Amino acid sequence: MPQRFTPYAWAKMIYLRDKLDTEVSAFGVTALEDDGLIEDVVLFEQEVSAGSVDVEADAVNDMMAELDEQGIDPYRCTRVWIHTHPAGIGTPSGVDERTFKEEVFTGPDWAVMMIFPKDGEVYARLKINRGGPVGEYEYQPTVDWSAPFQASDAEQWDAEIAKFVKKKVFYGKKYTGGYSGGYWDSKRGEYVYGRREWDDFYGGF
What we know:
Elements: E1 4-5, H1 7-19, E2 25-31, E3 34-42, E4 46-49, E5 52-54, H2 59-69, H3 74-77, E6 80-85, H4 94-100, H5 103-106, E7 110-117, E8 123-128, E9 135-139, E10 142-143, H6 154-164, E11 165-167, E12 169-185, E13 190-204
Parallel strand pairs: 1-3, 1-10, 4-11, 6-7
Antiparallel strand pairs: 2-3, 2-6, 4-5, 7-8, 8-9, 12-13
């Protein structure tokens, strides 16, 4: 069943894509009586960079528990996996393909992988595991303007980003431009510099 978005869910996903210069991963929440309608997009704890998302084992379980308290069953919030590609690549990476083969997406009757690239069309692929024509089918998701929806809420979306999305921090060394020692090589006719000077630093993607 090709997914449709409510205008609210679509706007939220576009906002997440454009707000962050990193990848971000989310799940689409389907309507109670319509599996084909995504009415919200929910985040979970993740550490991100421009080209990756790392998720702790309990992050999705914590998300499901929180949504369960709101009356949203797991089957409504774990079958539609949506993530962004800030580099603009609109097709799945090797990591995406491996992730989509994991049990969380092969256990249900069906599952969906979507990619929102920085530019270009949204990529979507439906996987039917049982109960229908088994296989995988690409399609173009749409916005269902006839479905009920609430107003956009950038303040709330920013709060969710701050709560769940953390940029990866890497450790390395930065060249300061100095040298310690050196000598004149008469055969080469040039000055050969000694050890370069580097400073430790921390940075984020």
